[in-house]
Design goal:
Elements lengths: L12 E11 L1 H11 L7 E8 L2 E8 L2 H4 L2 H6 L3 E9 L14 E5 L2 E8 L5 H10 L10 H12 L5 H8 L8 E5 L4 E5 L8 E4 L5 E4 L2 H6 L3 E5 L5 E5 L2 E5 L10 E2 L1 H6 L5 E2 L2 E2 H15 L6 E4 L5 H11 L7 E3 L12 H11 E3 L1 H4 L3 E6 L6 H12 L4 E6 L27 H8 L3 E4 L5 H5 L4 E2 L1 H4 L14 H14 L1
Parallel strand pairs: 14-23, 17-20, 20-21, 21-22
Antiparallel strand pairs: 1-4, 1-10, 2-3, 2-4, 5-6, 6-7, 7-8, 8-12, 9-10, 9-11, 12-13, 15-16, 18-19
Length: 482
């Protein structure tokens, strides 16, 4: 699946910065979001806090497209900023869904950026609508903003409001929140999504989804935010609130290590690069094969391919080249458009594969369409045999925590055996990472693997549609037509 599979998408990326003195926090956020671009390419935004006055810019597109030098120059200097890059798992693709979400309420202002998916979003939104709440977006982030705002009107501080809100919302959320005086971040009690913070040499604190973004802005990594923890950055330094810590068993999404995160990131003390190396080594042990060369599908299959090579002794080679200047596959509407982009984004190096038995490593198979196309590319380049190895188990269940896998009927592994899938994609053999080996990637069992084994940490939502609000409008229109 990797970079070219159109059926599965990344998470969002959140970023926050607080400086001692007014500075170019928008520029810092820009570079932070640029480092997190792999987590969402649909839209992005930055909100700057200049002495309590919020200024923002948000739009559809990549970070480099939305924020030109001229656009950044129009954002003022400030002491705080919140940034976000988005792929929408709940809600459609439109400018209204761009984050951070800004709220003006009786006690001041708030800007909120969110990574994840609430499992009780539909229930909460319906309850809010019945009290007169009017929603402007189709993302569950606005639901979080409403609840935090309601609690803020009843509590003495924004951190108390956020803590109260965490008693109400459920599911996956890593948040960065900005008030006129404080920058806050919070991670859900399960720790589904990553969140960390660091500090630059001049004392500026930075919060980000991944440690790679800290490095990009010159910040030294301090630590990961604990599941359930709230960090408050303000005039009194950093305050850690842990009243929600330890309430749930930690369940970090294992797919962060397999695919979502950048390989140079470290999440909860575990190197993403090393986790993928281990996945490749495990594949070599459980699905050995005689071959001439091992190669990975760029980008997230490369590290696992290296691990497979190291364990098996089969030489590692580069057999696929991607065009880095083409937009990501899933941005294009329609299957035909996506397939056309795959053709120009990925090419096989004939000299590397011709007449050879090839082990091809990828991170997952969703529907099998793009995977089949990649196998065909290598076959047409002259490969004698192609043995597909996948550094994740088969997808068998929907995800309700942010990954865009919401229908069993579209998952090829729900309909076909491993042998049948191999035949469908045109491979000589196929092997998946065993579910039982997922803990070996990170050295513990504190992870969520529900999309592979159906073991959900939370109650399964009653309304599982990804674009619930827009579908509701469609139903109303049809009813009115009758």
């Amino acid at each position: 699946m990797s970079l070219y599979e159109s059926e599965i998408h990344e998470e969002c990326g959140v970023f926050g910065v607080i400086a001692k003195e007014p500075t170019d926090v928008a520029n810092i956020s820009y570079y932070g979001l640029y480092a997190l671009q792999h987590r969402g390419q649909e839209s992005c935004g930055i909100v700057v806090n200049d002495d309590g006055v919020f200024s923002s810019y948000k739009d559809l597109g990549l970070v480099s497209e939305v924020f030109s030098a001229d656009t950044l120059s129009r954002l003022p200097k400030g002491t705080m900023a919140v940034g976000h890059c988005r792929y929408g798992t709940t809600g459609g693709t439109n400018r209204n869904n761009c984050q951070p979400i800004e709220v003006n309420h009786q006690k001041g202002h708030m800007a909120l950026a969110h990574n994840g998916n609430l499992s009780n979003a539909a229930e909460l939104r319906n309850s809010l609508e019945l009290t007169g709440a009017i929603f402007h977006t189709t993302s569950d982030t606005e639901t979080i903003a409403y609840i935090v705002t309601k609690e803020r009107l009843k509590t003495p501080s924004i951190e108390d409001a956020l803590s109260s809100a965490m008693n109400i919302i459920d599911g996956a959320y890593s948040l960065v929140l900005m008030s006129p005086q404080k920058l806050l971040c919070a991670r859900d009690p399960y720790g589904f999504r990553p969140l960390c913070y660091g500090q630059t040499p001049d004392g500026t604190y930075v919060v980000a989804s991944e440690s790679c973004a800290l490095k990009a802005v010159g910040a030294e990594f301090i630590r990961d935010v604990e599941p359930g923890e709230i960090l408050v950055f303000g005039p009194n330094g950093i305050v850690s609130r842990k009243e929600h810590c330890g309430k749930k068993r930690k369940k970090l999404c294992i797919f962060e290590y397999i695919y979502f995160a950048r390989p140079d990131s470290v999440i909860d003390t575990v190197s993403v690069h090393q986790a993928r190396i281990r996945a490749g080594k495990i594949l070599a042990k459980v699905h050995p094969v005689e071959a001439d060369v091992v190669m990975g599908v760029p980008d997230s299959g490369l590290d696992a391919a290296l691990g497979f090579s190291q364990e098996s002794g089969i030489p590692y080679g580069i057999g696929l080249i991607k065009n880095k200047y083409i937009g990501r596959t899933f941005i294009s509407p329609g299957q035909n458009a996506r397939m056309d982009q795959v053709k120009i984004k990925l090419n096989a190096i004939e000299e590397s594969v011709k007449g050879k038995r090839v082990v091809l490593i990828d991170d997952s198979i969703v529907r099998g369409t793009t995977c089949g196309r990649i196998v065909k590319l290598i076959r047409e380049a002259g490969a004698k045999e192609i043995h597909m190895r996948i550094s994740a188990p088969p997808f068998l269940h929907p995800c309700y925590y942010g990954t865009d896998i919401d229908s069993r009927e579209n998952l090829i592994a729900c309909k076909h055996s491993v042998e049948e899938i191999a035949e469908i994609i045109g491979a000589d053999s196929l092997g998946y990472l065993p579910v039982s080996e997922l803990g070996s990637l990170i050295g513990n069992n504190e992870y969520c693997s529900a999309c592979f084994d159906g073991d959900y940490p939370t109650e399964i939502p009653k309304d599982t549609r990804k674009n619930r609000f827009e579908q509701k409008l469609s139903e109303v229109r049809k009813a009115n037509e009758k």
